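Internal tracking record. Fields below are filled automatically when a chain is submitted to the structure queue. Please do not edit lines marked as system-generated. If the sequence contains nonstandard residues, flag them in the REMARKS field before resubmitting.
Queue: standard
Priority: normal
Entity type: single polypeptide chain
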Amino acid sequence: MALSLVAGGLAVGGVQAANALGNPLLLSITVSPTAASVAAGKTVQFTATGHYSNLSTANLTDAVTWSASSGATISSSGLATGTSTGVSTITATDPSTLVDGTAALTVTSAVLVSVTVSPPVASVATGDTQQFTATGTYSDGSTANLTDAVTWSATSGATVSNASGSQGLATGTSNGVSTITATDPSTLVDGTAALTVLPLPAELLTVTVSPAVATASVGLGQQFTATGTYSDGSTANLTDAVTWSATSGATVSSTGFATGTSTGVSTITATDPATLLDGTAVLTIVAGGGGSNPPPPSMTSNPVSGGRLTVVTVKGVDFTPGQSVTVTYLSGLRRASRAKTVLCSSTVAGNGTFACSGTIPRKARSGTRGTHSIVASTPSGSQATATFTITRTPRHR
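SYSTEM-GENERATED OUTPUT FOLLOWS
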């Protein structure tokens, strides 16, 4: 029996015949939702329902062929994505009968999805500033600089500007970690960053030179020291850090040791090279025989006695600042290779002192039991001597 189709369906007689044969025919397809709205870049799931000649229905979402007009795309499973603003027609077509159904998808402008604040982590000293920027990411994958459009805020420890021309400029106000937040005022979507505010370094306030007044003979000298006083109340020895200078009548080394060159009065100045803060002292240079001349160098050892292989620490005072010192143990043995052993070496500090440690050698190089000399010497010929007594080393039982 012949079947006739009318307007995508069956004539009444054809429906009755199809039912009689037990083969229901697809009459129509309904697409749901029939009308939807989505922002560009967002998705909407559509479903297709088939209506048959025997009044039954079936879910055809995965069986139909999906298509979309301009403004959207749609997957084989009915998932539509808005691509540009406007109205797109979504169509579901049965591939065997070409029966179809449609729905309307209105695509609106892309919506803000997230806000990213850069840099995500930063640190400043108290009182310093850090510029932050806000970038918005939208539903269609596009981005935009929102630095001047968002509302900026900060937790304790910092402030952040919303003023025109300085939006996102954060200022550290107290030690700690502050959370910087950028909020889109219309959607309330926000993003955050962390700003660590560090304490201000102590500021150098004064430089003091000691002694403030001194006298030295021509050709001899005086050791000066420089002490810095800081904003936090602390002090530090700056003798080796400052720049030393002297007016006529004296010269001064990089470690503050001034030498008289002619009689008169010389101003000794210590200047901090970073801040240019300085301090001064007065050195009066007199003819030979007067003044306060440095005492001869001297040295001590600790311990002063013990067995071989004992670790000895030697300390020297009144050496010329900046010179190298070599400390040697004298064994008293005749063979030159065993007569002396270098224990340690050091550099004289700005205050004329040094300290270093070494080990008394084994028997082959230490000599016999008794007292031996330890000598500290500099390239300029300065020397100082200490002693170490080798005692009987007890045997372990």
